Amino acid sequence: MNTSINTMKNPATLDGIVEAVKKIEEKKVMKLVNYAIREGASQAQIIEAIQLGLDQIGYLFEEGEYGVTDLMMAGIIFEEVLKLPSLKLINNGAEETIGTILLCTIERDLHDIGKSIFKSAALMSGFRVEDMGINITAQEIVSETIRLKPDIIAISSILAEGVKYIKGVNDDLVIAGLRDQVKIIVGGLSTHRQAIEYTGVDAYAHDVYEGVKQCKSWLNKGGESN
């Protein structure tokens, strides 16, 4: 586990969160999260522990051990955790949005959990989010970019082949003369620094917390700069 988790008084609690999320035990997750907060765990540590559990669920889904219902339940658990006052990523009371995010899961990829969780976190952080859904092509993204003029395009990709389709999005935006008008962030099990360098996008995020922080940083709305 990441060394940042081990800075807490009782890192076993965060390990327990990972395991409880993996087993989709909602009551246990909430109990452990509240305990971790009382023990002094940071927002980032708790989000990281949950993300590690979600990653394991993703792998189990790929192996056929979990089904779509399990993915949906895991997403619900994450959203419940984000509702806890000490874990809200931002000010819910903002009357105006801080920017627009065009969100989707890339072509050939039918996974929805990561995208849905990011959407919830981004909305809670004051963004307007336009969710295009799953299995979205590069041309569809370009068309919506022309129509909506978003500040950021956020793409989820779980499958390994998603990298080539993400590159297609970047290339098509360049051809359309739009690439310098929008930032692109990607997330999911198929993304890593080398893949991002290949695709030409601006950033990738290991987890939802990091992704929202990066988006806020681009718009100078309280995020931490890279």
From TrEMBL:
GO MF: cobalamin binding; metal ion binding; methionine synthase activity
UniProt cross-references to Pfam families, sorted A to Z: B12-binding (PF02310), B12-binding_2 (PF02607)
InterPro entries the record matches: Cbl-bd_cap (IPR003759), Cobalamin-bd (IPR006158), Cobalamin-bd_sf (IPR036724), Met_Synthase/Corrinoid (IPR050554), Meth_synthase_dom (IPR036594)
Transmembrane segments: none
One CC-aspect GO term: cytosol
Residues annotated as domain B12-binding: 98-226
Protein name: B12-binding domain-containing protein
